[in-house]
Task: structure prediction
Amino acid sequence: MAFDLIIRGGSLPDGRVADIGISGETIAAIEPRLDAPAGRIIDATGDLVSAPFVDPHFHMDATLSYGIPRINASGTLLEGISLWGELKKVMTFEEVRDRALAYCDWAVSMGLLAIRTHVDTCDDRLLGVEALLEVRKLVAPYIDLQLVAFPQDGLYRDPTARQNTIRALDMGVDVVGGIPHFERTMADGRRSVTELCEIAAERGLPVDMHCDETDDPLSRHIEQLAYETQRLGLHGRVAGSHLTSMHSMDNYYVSKLLPLIAEAGVSAIPNPLINIMLQGRHDTFPKRRGLTRVKEMQALGIRVGWGQDCVLDPWYSLGTADMLDVAFMGLHVAQMSSPADMHRCFEMVTTVNAEIMGLGHLGLAVGKRASLVVLDAGNAVEAVRLRPDRLYVVSRGKVVAERGKRDTALSIPGRPASINRRHHL
Ligand code: FE2
Result:
């Protein structure tokens, strides 16, 4: 059997060393050694070959807009929302589309080949929705892009959000979103969760809700989200994003809450880069860390994936589309320092995130889509430590990004001529 492409001798995240044979857009073989001819052979000996990176939480309508029309002076979530409101009034379709496409180029270069982005539906023009629907079509040959209808200013708090969110879903947006903690009252927040889950159930859509992104320990909309998931039979289709208030909830209450989340099959998507930056801004000391209870949820079998949320926008002034940066921050804040936990952090930004997004066609297995990334690292833990170069990125069987290995040349008497930061454990 001849292949179009063979990735030769790479180390897989599970520790196997194998050749991967690709035919067309599909992984056709994974064997210790493939001797068949191939259109191209990439030598990945000693390198990590992984399923692609996946980001289940992003805001592509706002990305790369940092400084437009001004910078978030307080650094808070709420100033970010009002700043975004200023930008929304003046932005154009072309600007949103071109910023999003530029970000998608960054993503491909980082091996990030699937993204779930929220898109603001609190805009009578629905300009962001139109622009990202266009982007979804343009990048479809190389990125799986899912759109979430996101009523940023509140489903009920904003006068036309409800009708515009439904319009966005009618236009082909993939997922139902919400922001219950931003509604006027706790009761409105709960009601919004109920109505949005009912809309999703009627339409057969997934739900991904910004939920309790606050330091207020009494913000408990995740409870309602788990309840509605259970009541409406939405198991496996619902995610709660951020869930930061859980860091401050009463421990006894959490001991009841987490089993309910597990029972409903609701996934959790913490976003460590943005939330360690935004949360705790009203604290003096001790200052809260801005992260939900990751290890505690995982211990109960709740699916938890790391999301990126923002890159260079009204809320976050940094970012490179590197999901390994996200994992790196996440493992620090969640204190996931054991080898098993660090390995899990790598899985969280690859295979676990793909599961959360329902992307069963991704993964390193025969019959799956031939999308993968070759990293200049020996294994998954080393990849998290180094956040190394993506040597090759393959999407649907095609090499879409590649760069050479880079050792650092030294000019130090008595030292070797070059160094490489790789150090296999
Ligand atoms: Fe978000």
Residues 57, 59, 118, 210, 241, 309 surround fe (ii) ion (CB under 6 Å).
